[in-house]
Amino acid sequence: DAGITQSPRHKVTETGTPVTLRCHQTENHRYMYWYRQDPGHGLRLIHYSYGVKDTDKGEVSDGYSVSRSKTEDFLLTLESATSSQTSVYFCAISTDRTGGFINEQFFGPGTRLTVL
Amino acid sequence: AQSVTQLDSQVPVFEEAPVELRCNYSSSVSVYLFWYVQYPNQGLQLLLKYLSGSTLVKGINGFEAEFNKSQTSFHLRKPSVHISDTAEYFCAVDDYKLSFGAGTTVTVRA
């Protein structure tokens, strides 16, 4: 299994509080991603990173920010959590895009976040 | 932009019966397609992928999928399922970033 851990695995918080989720990899992969999973929507990309300090927005980035100061860590921050951000959050990693297309993504175990 | 439609949200099936999960995508350019599986309370893992070449792709655990460009489909099949195949299955298309379908929940019953 790819070495990807997420912390915390479960979190309950209140509306308006800041929350930071951490993704840590031991594979030295260049690309890291944050997704949220909601029933009926599959996985939707929040933000991704293509290197240290290089990040870009996904399709559902509003209300979220990310940081990547080291290759192995990718942090997702909810600046002021809302109930609509209750979800399961997955981190994924992948290697360089050889040949111009995406390589397989490896997923972490997920973080279940509940915003009351 | 690309999009993915999984035509069945729930597929109940008896053990040792065949199963087909349908996936259609919209695209006007070359596509790279994936099927992922998510077992209960776990992350996603890759079942198989189509990048180029033969349109019939074989994956892990006896699954296979067929890429059909004219019908813009990438249906997943298994000739005989096991109880352990109970999971959620996601079709995804590469548009420089992966776009996922909404998922199909497969429940295998004895």
Can you walk through the features of this model?
The complex is a heterodimer of chains A (116) and B (110). With 116 residues, chain A is an all-beta fold. In chain A, 0% of the residues lie in helices and 56% in strands. In chain A, strands 2, 4, 5, 6, 9, 10 and 11 form a seven-stranded mixed beta sheet that branches. A four-stranded antiparallel beta sheet of chain A has the order 1-3-8-7, with no helix packed on it. The termini of chain A are far apart. Chain B has one domain: Immunoglobulins (Immunoglobulin-like, Sandwich), CATH 2.60.40. In chain B, the strands form three sheets. In chain B, strands 2, 5, 6, 10, 11 and 12 form a six-stranded mixed beta sheet that branches. Chain B is mainly β. Chain B has strands at 3-6, 10-14, 19-21, 23-26, 33-38, 44-50, 56-58, 64-68, 73-78, 87-95, 97-100, 104-109. The mean pLDDT of chain B is 91. The chains are: A mainly beta (116), B mainly beta (110).
Explain the layout of strands and helices:
The complex is a heterodimer of chains A (116) and B (110).
Chain A: E1 4-7, E2 10-13, E3 19-25, E4 31-38, E5 42-51, E6 54-57, E7 64-70, E8 73-78, E9 87-94, E10 106-107, E11 111-115
Parallel strand pairs in A: 2-11
Antiparallel strand pairs in A: 1-3, 3-8, 4-5, 4-9, 5-6, 7-8, 9-10, 9-11
Chain B: E1 3-6, E2 10-14, E3 19-21, E4 23-26, E5 33-38, E6 44-50, E7 56-58, E8 64-68, E9 73-78, E10 87-95, E11 97-100, E12 104-109
Parallel strand pairs in B: 2-12
Antiparallel strand pairs in B: 1-4, 3-9, 5-6, 5-10, 7-8, 8-9, 10-11, 10-12
Q: Biggest interface and which pair forms it?
A: A-B, 20 and 22 residues
Regarding quaternary structure, what we see is: heterodimer
The top-level CATH class of chain B is Mainly Beta
**Which structural class best describes the helix and strand composition of chain A?**
mainly beta
How confident overall, as mean pLDDT of chain A? 92
Share of helix of chain B, binned: under 10%
Which regions of chain B contain 5 or more consecutive residues with pLDDT less than 50?
none
Kindly report the name of the CATH homologous superfamily of chain A: Immunoglobulins
Main pleated sheet of chain A = 7 strands, mixed
Q: Quickly give the CATH architecture of chain A.
A: Sandwich
